[in-house]
From TrEMBL:
Protein name per the record: DegT/DnrJ/EryC1/StrS aminotransferase family protein
Taxonomic path: Bacteria, Pseudomonadati, Pseudomonadota, Gammaproteobacteria, Orbales
PANTHER family: DTDP-4-AMINO-4,6-DIDEOXYGALACTOSE TRANSAMINASE (PTHR30244:SF34), TRANSAMINASE (PTHR30244)
SUPFAM superfamilies: PLP-dependent transferases
Protein family per UniProt: Belongs to the DegT/DnrJ/EryC1 family.
Amino acid sequence: MLHLPPMQLTCSGTAALVIALTTLKQRYPHKPYVIIPAYTCPLVALAIHHCGLKIKLCDLGHNTFDFDFEHLTQILDEQVLAILPTHLGGQVADVKRVKALATPYGITVIEDAAQALGADVGQSGDIVFYSLAAGKGLTLFEGGLLGASNQNLAIQLQETAQQIIPQRPFFEAKRIIELLGYTALYNPFGLHFVYGQVRRRLVNRGQLIEAVGDDFDFSIPLHHVSRFRQNVATHAVDRLPEFLQQTRQQALTRIKQLQDLPNLHIVSSNSDNITAVWPFIMLKLPTQQQRDNILNELWASPFGVSRLFIYDLPNYTYLNAIIPPHSMPNAANFAQTMLTITNSLWLTELQFQQILRVIQKHVN
């Protein structure tokens, strides 16, 4: 379905990245640096730190989730082990351009497709990984997929997983219980009153990092996935193509309505010739004040309007020990002016029109 070589299942997308980086570190022990976008999930930084590697940040381009390629060119050298172009929110990064820049230095390109299962990705990089976490379309509550274009590298990834991933049956039992609870509550009523209630309380208290789930622990759980959860994911695969088609059509229809509003930038892939996926729609407002005014009305609603990551990486205090303290102006601006609208099939057209009216009021 993904048009890729066989993938190996991991307990999370973060675990998949840990396996990939550990394998590359063993291959190239003299290369200590990994380049990542300055706006991405904090778990990426924690995985790099977990593997004993160092982070180099690359700023974003103007009004895009993709790299600032001029900045990327400046920070490339023979000490860089890997670069992680990120397919943020299911939108596809320019991996071919990254690969062309990385090849002369012998740098491995790892495609971060944690939010892009089903998109046209994994074809240009050396390694690709996905997340199967809750809310990702295909899930076993927590899980991941990992693959490589080169067969020898793929075998090494499997060998590394056998070496560093423990069984931890009690932790896996916890995941099974969480999956059963998630299955029982995965409906508009359950999500609104269980997940939404906690989130609204955190937003009202101003605990925004906790509200969006950016408060990660430095300890990364690593364990084998049980046969039971593998079977759950196998059955879910049958429903995935139809789900992706429905959400893609819904997103494109609603984006057309958003495009009629002034002063609004829809964040999307730079090429029209590739297939993206749409777990949510990313909007970039002209100013932080406009973005915050919209969120003040909608964030605590049940309509699925939120923020993705609260800050660019240098502005997370708890990451200060592992993130270089460099200014990343485009990434900071992206974090300050971007919001997301869920693309859940449960969001009715009437509810979406309510969202549109609020946005229109603050962008006119």
